[in-house]
Amino acid sequence: MSIKSHAKRALAGITATAALLLTVAACGFTGTAGGATQSGTAASGTGTTAGTIAVVASINQWGSVAEDLGGEHVAVTNIMTKTNVEAHDYEPTAKDVARFGSAQIAIVNGADYDPWASKAAESTKATLVDAAETAGIKEGDNPHVWFSAKARSAAADAITAAYQQADPTHKDVYAKLNQDWHAKEDRLEAKIKNVAAKTANLPYAATESVAWYLADDLKMTDATPQGYAQASANESEPTPADIKDFQDALKAGDAKLLVLNTQESNSTTEQITNAAKQADVPIVELTEQMPAKYGDLLDWMGALVDQFATAAK
Ligand SMILES: [Zn+2]
């Protein structure tokens, strides 16, 4: 995009500030192509707006953490924000990739969840924060690491460290925002501990192991039939026998709660959901990306913990 030519034309007769706004609009930078959104106090196509750190996050849940931790000193662009697109097979647009080139800090989920983002960040000067890596979670492990209390805290601290390095003038501000964030995370973890008294050892099954870390923090037992779980983890089709095992587990009461990832739903998950309904097994529905109605990752997690508490009989 050509900022300079837009700006030159726009500067004739109007203030520089208005020109910047016009430029941004003309470039369509604040648009939602590719599902991306931008927030923060200053939007700039070049990512070099004075006083703010340009941050790009591959997925909106980590982007929301980046916003909490940077406040008015960061401008965060999220690439994946939609809860109705295939999260695991996301194909970035050229625009998505370009956003990494103009970022000072890039936040990816890692653990092979968003390999396109790690790849896009690789060839740029952006400081990379790999959320999974900060918690020692590797490729081949369950990649939905934002559901893990340990990963959230580790990633938050890595983001704060990146901010303090990029913008040492505001070191104390970032330290305070980090403290506030941890206070909120601590409240969430206290809530998880409370609910765990009710959900401990509760056998659950999941159409996809999306909330596996949260279920683990809630001390629940994963009772997803193995054949199905393996097929799901490998992103291959479960066999009819796998599906029947799953339905039988729900009927027999071997799984007392069903976790349904609506973002990765298909005819198979529909068969399973129907079996759960027939067997009167409560269903917790969730998505991969953070639904727009939540302020940040911690609010979303808190709401999900409430859902698990309600569903646990
Ligand atoms: Zn998933």
Please, could you describe this protein's structure?
This protein has helices at residues 3-11, 16-27, 60-70, 94-101, 115-122, 131-134, 149-166, 171-199, 212-217, 226-233, 240-252, 267-278, 297-311, and strands spanning 37-40, 53-59, 74-80, 105-108, 127-130, 203-206, 221-222, 257-261, 283-286. The chain has 313 residues and is of the alpha/beta class. Strand 8, helix 12 and strand 9 form a beta-alpha-beta unit. It is globular. 44% of the residues are buried. Mean pLDDT is 87; it is low at 1-35 and 40-48. It binds zinc ion (ZN). Residues 87-88, 144, 208, 210, 264, 288 line the site of zinc ion (ZN).
Keyword list:
about 325 residues; binds zinc ion; globular; alpha/beta; 4-stranded parallel beta sheet
Element layout with pairings:
Elements (H helix, E strand, L loop, with lengths): L2 H9 L4 H12 L9 E4 L12 E7 H11 L3 E7 L13 H8 L3 E4 L6 H8 L4 E4 H4 L14 H18 L4 H29 L3 E4 L5 H6 L3 E2 L3 H8 L6 H13 L4 E5 L5 H12 L4 E4 L10 H15 L2
Parallel strand pairs: 2-3, 2-4, 4-5, 6-7, 6-8, 8-9
Antiparallel strand pairs: 1-3
Helix pairs in contact: 1-2, 3-7, 3-8, 4-5, 7-8, 8-13, 11-12
Bound molecules: zinc ion.
